[in-house]
Amino acid sequence: MPAVGNVLIVGGGTAGSALAILLARAGVTVDIAEIQSGTTALGSGITLQGNALRVLRDLGVWDRVAAAGFAFDSLGLRAPDGTLLAEMPGARTGGPGLPATLGINRPELAAVLADAVGEAGARTRFGVTAEALTDTGDQVEVRLSDGTTGTYDLVVGADGIRSAVRGLIGIDVAPSPTGMGIWRVHTRRPAGVERTDLVYGGPCFIAGYCPTGPDTMYAYLVEKARPREAVGDKVAHMRALAEGYGGAWDEIREDITDPDRINYTWFESLLVDRPWNRGRVVLVGDAAHACPPTIAQGAAQCLEDAAVLAELLLAADRLDRSLFDAFMDRRHERAAAVVEASVRLARWQMEPAPDADMPGLMNRITALVTERP
């Protein structure tokens, strides 16, 4: 018998959905409380490395994700004028049977996971979140924001970087800005764009793009963070930044016309010290660790949390300190290394250091995430 019979997952994003699929498929009763009114995803597109694709394959959704996204196996580095400087093979961190990287529109990934949640037998309640949690020692009594209550063997906080559950269990950790802000636009994919190409330099710290489907992509520009309330005319600002780049950016810039297709966010980081649980309430995903997308590992680490926690819960016959210790032994150091490396890369770009070894740092993280957690 699994260590738990029923579980409440607060948050129906990547980590919460993956965990729900794995547990419900094994016969655990799973409820998801999702504060949004429906299956939604902020932003434009997402880049998934091989170790993320490995978990999606284990979830049984890889074929659907592959059909909805765009896979590629190399990375290009370009000068601001569009000149190709280098082409490098992508690391197949998910193993030889998977591509190095896949780009996908966030709403399409969310839809694939939501369908799989329902197929596994988990129940999602939209428009609600956890309002109060009382751990009685052998169960958790829950009051949701709509006034309904329930009792669960385990509550999982998968409710993101500004997690409400984190506060409810007394973990006082808040996101830290890195000093960078990123502009993303969902747009048409120019002919010839079949992978991510990056530019380090020009008017921005980073300029890049990632194909997400047969005719779609998202492009992004990273600059010094500006106050969110001072963003102003999103189209004008992003087009002005894009003026500093040539090649595919000439077409991308012409397509930056709709403010609803533009997303602006800060790069932020967060890391909760071990343990990530307080009694029978545990944090996963961005609620426990979050990193700027400088090495595109945020979603991958969320998926790995779900895979490891599900494996431990389904293999044990009781929920005790040893299970949470095992979860931390397999997840904390690995997630911390990814967060710290992502932040360090951002700092090196903002404040170049003579001893900065970006390739070395990225190679170490690649080796780390190639191994199963």
Task: Describe the overall structure.
The chain is an alpha+beta fold and about 375 residues long. It has 2 domains: about 5-70 and about 100-175 and about 270-370, 3-Layer(bba) Sandwich (FAD/NAD(P)-binding domain); about 180-265, D-Amino Acid Oxidase, Chain A, domain 2. Helices cover about 35% and strands about 30% of the residues. An 8-stranded mixed β-sheet has the order 6-5-14-15-16-13-17-20, sandwiched between helices. The longest helix is centred in the C-terminal third of the chain and has 30 residues, at about 320-350. It is globular.
CATH architecture descriptor of the largest domain: 3-Layer(bba) Sandwich
Low-confidence stretches: none
What Rg is obtained from the alpha carbons, in whole angstroms? 21 Å
How many distinct domains?
A: 2
Q: Helical element count?
A: 10
Q: Look up the CATH topology of the largest domain.
A: FAD/NAD(P)-binding domain
Query: How would you write the strand order of the largest sheet?
Result: 6-5-14-15-16-13-17-20
What is the average per-residue confidence, as pLDDT, rounded to a whole number?
Answer: 95
